């Protein structure tokens, strides 16, 4: 068995193991965001504000359609990590082959739904007429290649289950360079506008999917992929669904509330949409820096649950929460101080820059709450309970945001962009507090 690409999280110093796992994952996410941001920079500077708004306005819709299936990849990670920690070879092999086949099926379903339904959902989201056609074109291209994205995410989830976060980093670096080069060629040289961004994304994701499959095929351990053995083990699939479906549903609920919020932002016009899009892209760098420790908690808890080391789980939870808080606070304040320079990378329009700073003032000063909320949710999932975080998110974040938009925001005095953004930190705080209570309940139940 090749152990050079494995990381046993059931032994050794907790903080150093967590850092060893999380830092490559953070770098992977930051690279992905950097290259995604390059999409927005290129289209914003060389195709105009409407094209920037078209690409930016699709993010919440993409997340809405994709998150259910991405939740299943979380289920894959938890189940595989649990079997890896428990040294259950047969079940681990079945998990690998079930997961890859499921990823292909998920991709096909998403292609059909995304290509057919994108325009109608954008209309419901009140996308302005000058943005609608461009946004629809971008989404049809994006969802046409979504199967590759699914395969990569499920494959990298399997690698993370054994502590391998380095090779997904290398894959994303290669895919990101390819995406950036193709963006420059398609948008600047070929004048393809948002279609160029879409095709660059699809081609680079196909590269990532092929790369992760090649790694799994060449593995020498229980994670080795044999295409002839691809099949869906109903028992394994049921475990993946049990963990992953609630996680995916939670993502859908967040995305649905964000779609409602995006629709409210859309009502202020293309300038506000573009400013919001630029700010959201920058926020992603802070979020993924925190989320690396959140994902680390997921795999850490899963491996140690399989090994029966509950005390180790308890120590890791609070260490990871402290890391998330420190990173979120420092980066959030740093981004706020540099807000004009950072948003200025995306656009030359002073009006768009000013709109983006409005979001920064509220989000960047409280973003650590979002990271801690997600981190605690993943700790609960890692110890085998995925439904409870869904319920807390549904009540503490999603329903609250929707009610706010349809009540407080509709009052003329509060009908402004700041009133939209303030819903985020309040919902993060409520949901985090609820997750802490639930985690303490389950950890005591496991120990009794």
Can you offer a commentary on this structure?
The protein is an all-alpha fold. Helices cover 83% and strands 0% of the residues. The chain contains 17 helices and no strands. It has helices at residues 14-46, 49-56, 59-86, 89-124, 129-144, 146-161, 166-189, 193-218, 234-266, 270-307, 310-337, 339-344, 350-363, 367-382, 387-406, 417-421, 423-447. The two termini are 36 Å apart.
Number of strands: 0
Principal-axis shape equals globular
Give the % helix.
Answer: over 70%
Structural class: mainly alpha
**Gyration radius, rounded:** 21 Å
What about the largest sheet?
none
Q: DSSP helix count?
A: 17
Question: How much of the sequence is in beta strands?
Answer: under 5%
* SSE order, one letter for each helix or strand: HHHHHHHHHHHHHHHHH
Distance between the termini: 36 Å
Nearest-integer average pLDDT: 87
- Which residue ranges are poorly predicted, with pLDDT under 50 across at least 5 consecutive positions? none
Salient structural properties:
448 residues, mainly alpha, 0% strand, single chain, 17 helices
Question: Briefly, what is this?
Answer:
This protein is mostly helical and 448 residues long.
Note the topology.
Layout: H1 14-46, H2 49-56, H3 59-86, H4 89-124, H5 129-144, H6 146-161, H7 166-189, H8 193-218, H9 234-266, H10 270-307, H11 310-337, H12 339-344, H13 350-363, H14 367-382, H15 387-406, H16 417-421, H17 423-447
Helix pairs in contact: 1-2, 1-7, 1-8, 1-10, 2-5, 2-10, 3-4, 3-6, 3-9, 3-10, 4-5, 4-6, 4-9, 5-8, 6-8, 7-8, 9-15, 10-11, 10-13, 10-14, 11-14, 14-17, 15-17
